[in-house]
Design a protein that fits this description.
Mean pLDDT: 79
Low-confidence stretches: 1-7, 36-117, 227-234, 701-705, 708-712
Number of helices: 8
Number of strands: 38
Shape: globular
Length: about 700
């Protein structure tokens, strides 16, 4: 057998040449790949395609803010401005929920320069005299200063990134539209011209775009129509009519911030649920908003770099109502108001840290970050008062002690530009004006009322068991009735459940010391709730339950009222057979009521009428809920209010009046009880005779055996 040939030996020089050849091939392949990528930049562009398309159509530059590198997507480069791709579809109807963690899906880590905390100005929308006006404030340099005034509402101010303008919603021209206020000159320009409600604007970081909420009413398509059952008739053709109500909901739109731009708004959301309160992130790639598409009000994120699976649920808190998101100046944290069963508090979440937990700061309902990100200022709502306060974000403690306000806060923003004490002339002119009082007290002179006590006067054209109110509050009631009728289009207070109640008239159990006895309270009629013209939303403050009353407007064309955010409380759910709903006294409604509504509770508070807490037994007794009772205290307690109309002797030893109960009918004449008849002694039963035992005699039987027969 021949030996195998020896393997050729590779010298070190040959091995070195082979390495250099492979390295040269790798470098050539890399250069070819880079050339291919540079020749097709549209595949990895960071620009939002439809924003760039709109910018080209509107002849305005597209936003230049870019996001940082993400771990979930490949590295991206910018696209030349000459490329103009078609706008992708933005419909999110039926889009599945993301399977990954919502925090992990967010990849925005911008770096933004901030100014000191003492710089800038707070702008708020505060209710004053029944209307919401814009105010400017700084805790250290500027007192609360009014900017707008009139018989209309200015809501939800949003400061532009450069601090020169304010975008806000107003119904000063009849319908709800967006407006721009130039802070230097005081010039106001109208942005939108629609019949539906437009509100809650938020600026893009470059100041070129606005995202806002709008109330949409859409007629159903042919696929959405539902068949209406009809009875067959031989005289009519076999035609099945179809019908479906119009779809009404809050949706989110984006439009140019230039009033002269001839560009229609772009719809960002398209869902049957309510989507509202948008907030544009500092890097421009994300928009946070509130949606109840999951069944509860939660914080959602719209990723503008995505087309499919663009929307993700961020908060995922089914036991709380999450509202009003606000981004930190660096875009790394998001704050919002989380309302559980007892308190609305401000919470923050670290966006760039997947899996981070919520951090509560304190009570509040509309957060806004200071320019340096060290503080959060917010409105603070009490049952019948409103305050402005602030919290430190990186340390415990208050940044601003609670400051009492004239009414509810319906919007707050922080501008990076300071509004100094040398106020512009237009600001000084508005600030010097004094709001006209909504009513004037007129005392009816009566000589026979002793000791300076007040009398009760008759209410005109009001249906109520006792048409009386105390003389100090009847003018306020009439003014409230007139204003509520003007805003709703129907006379809600023309029929009351109760007004003044005499001491001799009993109320429900537990209401012996009710304010209705003082003549300073009214109980509105709750029957419109059965006809869906009235709704009550539950609010809890420190363990006490209160109710917020909404009234449906007569004209549903956008000229009266606003869309609802709150879920109304369904008292009839206690009779649905669900034991949890029965023990809870009802349940929240499945969806927000459509249409336009007026917040009667806020309107009544502007005229001095406060709501009362429910009694502890309201879950089992509807009357104990006191959802329809309002009182005008004027700083008095119940006993002081009673002394205004009753003498001291009537209150010194009050005789309690028992509530009506079901008692047997009284017998007119007593009935004599008959004398019982004596029962005779029982007759003695004789002893039974013993029967002798009979012995049976057995019969004798013959057992004799016959003789055997012989066999031959």
């Amino acid at each position: 057998m021949q030996p195998s040939p020896a393997k050729p030996k590779v010298t070190p020089a040959a091995r070195s040449r082979l390495r250099r050849s492979l390295l040269a091939l790798i470098v050539i392949a890399a250069l070819v790949l880079v050339g291919v990528l540079l020749s097709k930049p549209q595949e990895i562009s960071l620009y939002l395609p439809w924003v760039e398309h709109l910018a080209a159509a509107a002849s305005t530059p597209a936003p230049t803010v870019r996001a940082s590198v993400t771990l979930l997507s490949p590295t991206r480069t910018t696209r030349p401005s000459s490329a103009t791709p078609p706008a992708p579809a933005t419909s999110d109807a039926g889009s599945p929920s993301p399977t990954t963690s919502p925090q992990a899906a967010i990849s925005e880590l911008p770096g933004t320069e901030t100014s000191a905390a003492t710089d800038g100005t707070l702008y708020l929308s505060i209710q004053e005299g029944g209307y919401h006006h814009l105010f400017a404030y700084h805790p250290q340099t500027l007192a609360l200063t009014r900017l707008t005034m009139g018989n209309w509402d200015d809501l939800a101010p949003a400061a532009s990134p450069d601090g020169s303008r304010l975008a806000f919603a107003s119904n000063r021209d009849g319908a709800w539209d967006l407006y721009l206020l130039e802070l230097e000159s005081g010039k106001i320009q109208r942005l939108t011209h629609t019949t539906q409600y437009d509100g809650a604007p938020s600026w893009s970081p470059d100041g070129q775009w606005l995202v806002y909420e709008s109330y949409v009413v859409e007629q159903p398509t042919s696929a959405e129509l539902t068949a209406t059952p009809t009875l067959p008739s031989p005289n009519l053709p076999d035609v099945t009519p179809t019908y479906a109500p119009p779809r009404q909901s809050l949706e989110i739109y984006i439009r140019p911030a230039d009033p002269a731009a001839d560009q229609p708004p772009i719809r960002l959301t398209d869902h049957a649920a309510a989507d509202y309160a948008p907030a544009w992130s500092p890097a421009g790639r994300l928009i946070a908003f509130v949606s109840n598409r999951s069944g509860d009000d939660e914080i959602w994120i719209a990723d503008l770099d995505r087309v499919d699976d663009r929307f993700s649920n961020l908060s995922r808190s089914p036991r709380a109502r999450d509202r009003f998101p606000a981004w930190s100046p660096d875009g790394r944290r998001l704050a919002w108001s989380s309302w559980d069963e007892s308190l609305a508090e401000i919470v923050t979440l670290q966006i760039d840290a997947p899996g981070s937990a919520l951090r509560p700061l304190g009570a509040g309902n509309r957060p806004v970050w200071s320019p340096d990100g060290e503080s959060i200022f917010t409105g603070l709502a009490a049952p019948n008062r409103s305050y402005l306060t602030g919290y430190r974000t990186n340390a415990s403690g208050l940044a601003l002690p609670p400051l009492a306000l004239s009414g509810e806060v319906s919007g707050i923003t922080w501008s990076p530009r300071a509004l100094s004490n040398a106020l512009p002339a237009w600001v000084q002119a508005v600030a010097r004006q004094t709001p006209t009082p909504a009513w004037q007290v007129a005392i009816t002179p009566v000589a026979e009322v002793p000791n300076g006590r007040q009398r009760v006067v008759t209410l005109q054209d009001v249906e109520v068991p006792y048409t009386l109110l105390q003389d100090l509050v009847d003018e306020s009631f009439q003014a409230l009735r007139q204003e509520s009728g003007r805003r709703t289009g129907w006379d809600f207070l023309a029929n009351l459940e109760n007004a003044f109640v005499p001491l001799t008239s009993p109320l429900y159990p537990g209401l012996q010391g009710d304010w209705l006895y003082t003549g300073r309270a009214i109980a509105v009629n709750s029957l419109p709730m059965n006809a869906s013209w009235m709704a009550a939303a539950r609010e809890d403050y420190n363990g006490q339950t209160y109710w917020r009353i909404y009234l449906r407007t007569r004209f549903q064309d956008g000229t009266q009222g606003r869309p609802l955010y709150d879920l109304p409380w369904n008292f009839n759910a206690r009779f649905s057979g669900d034991p949890q709903a029965y023990e809870a006294g009802g349940a929240p409604a499945q969806s927000v009521l459509s249409g336009y509504w007026v917040d009667f509770t806020a309107l009544a508070l502007a005229y001095g009428w406060e709501r009362l807490p429910a009694l502890s037994s309201w879950r089992s007794a509807v009357g104990a809920a006191r959802l329809n009772e309002f009182v005008l205290r004027d700083g008095r307690d119940w006993l002081a209010a009673m002394r205004e109309i009753y003498p001291e002797a009537a209150l010194a030893t009050p005789t309690p009046v028992l509530p009506p109960t079901f008692t047997p009918t009284a017998t007119r004449r007593p009935t004599w009880t008959p004398t019982p008849t004596r029962t005779p002694w029982p007759t003695r039963t004789p002893t039974p005779t013993r029967t002798p035992t009979v012995t049976r005699t057995p019969t004798r039987t013959s057992t004799k055996t016959p003789a055997p027969t012989a066999t031959p």
